[in-house]
Design brief:
This protein has 535 residues and is mainly alpha-helical. The chain contains 22 helices and 2 strands. It has one domain: Growth Hormone, Chain: A (Up-down Bundle). A two-stranded antiparallel ribbon has the order 1-2. Strand 1 and strand 2 form a beta hairpin. Keywords: Membrane, Transmembrane, Transmembrane helix.
Amino acid sequence: MSSGSVRDEEEEEEEEEERLIKKALDSKKNTTPYWRPVILITMMFIIHGTGYFISAASQTQLLEDIICRNHYRGQRPQPELQSAISSKESCKAAAVQEILAELLGMQTFFDGIPGLLLAIPYGALADKYGRKPILIMSMFGQVLGFAWVIFICWAELPLKIIWLSSAFTVVGGGSTVAASIVMMVIADVIPESERSKLFFYLQGGFICSELVGPPLGSVLMGKSPWIAILLGFGFIVVASSLALFVPETFEGRKISETATSPSMDTYQSLPPDEESLDDELLGPKQLRSTATSWFRHCLQTFMFVLSHGSVVSLVATFFIADFSRQSLSLLVQYVSERYSWSLARASWLTSFRAGFQLLFYLAVFPATDAWLIQKMGWQAKIKDRRMAKLTIFLIAISFIFLALAPQVWLILIGLIIYAVGSGFNTFTRSLVSSLVDPAMIGTLYSTLSVADTTGSLLAGPLVATTYKLGMQLGGIFHGMPYMLSFGLCAIAALVMSRLKLNDGTPKDDNRAVPTGNLAVRTSATDIESLSDALS
């Protein structure tokens, strides 16, 4: 038999495997939602978020106290030092707050590096071996990172060592990969028509934790910051344990169990059985082959995104929105310093914003979503595009209030407007999901995670720098981080205003599908429909 005939047979087998996987994935979308993983994921989100928000303000308080002691040690007698720290007035000095802002900003920067470098490789693994193993690894890595921060604060070692906590998130890629896997699970089991609504409910569950956590943490801070920190850590451990019970939802993995001759050259790689998996991962030759496969997958992802103008634009706005959202991480410190509020009191603003976000995510957004589709007859992707335009505009407006507010009540108005616009990420995620084939959801969400993480990575030190500069300049420039966020969101709003989709294109005709080594369009009209997206 000639080598040409062998290649033809191999290509036919690969095409048949791809056809079977795509058929199974498409049929999965036509079934009713599979609620067990969704319920477990929601519980995990709520418990993990509650743990984070219980401990967040207390961790900031603890770091501020340590910085304050280190700053004034040797300058004042011990009784005066303890009195100054207890009154908190001396700890609001610019020298202390600048160190704290740098510490938190650089922590955000370092936290983003593992996710940025590993989101796509872990996404490739999730598309190959399933969602559950990656989710478990990611949650475990976050537990290790939190434990490291607790140890450094307890031992009062040099605080910059807490930046090493980011190294633990190499295990699983940290929160970036975890969020991406969660969205993959939802996309695996929820039909497209219900996806936006489910994203809202999931985010609403997380906001519940944002509503409950800060007040509880504030009460516990009155006794000791350590109580809130340790309780928050316990919540995170429990949430991470729930990942063990999330069922595998990746249909490609289940289908491949009966497939033969899996090829690593196809875009939708099929995992081998358990014995061959062990062999594949052990030998040097197999490791090189696996690394090559990962690199090829990353390259395919990059080429896919660049080849579709609408996807590029949406990923860019996703990056900008996340970059701007990171400025809210300084809100408690910003209000505490600018308006002379205690950190415990300022932390209530987080719950205030969360309360309005919860109202919109659990009631207003889902009701609006259903009304636009069922009553107005809008296609899902058209609805998502128009709502994304509106919400990014509102986010930009909210940052004007945060930047220029002379009094706290204007901050409250800005937070309400931000809550109305907070549906942007959900609408955008749902919109970009509708532009690709279900088999590429893992790749797509990995790309969004990279944009997400890049925004956080750059925002951390830049927000800290603008905050320090704003404190030095004073006056109207006090809110400089939020001025920067306004400018970026205004650019994103302009990009969204230029984004257009072909309203009359059948939704199954405007998806990218995997074939061979590259993701291509299904027809010439498909290429035109996406190339015209920005016209």
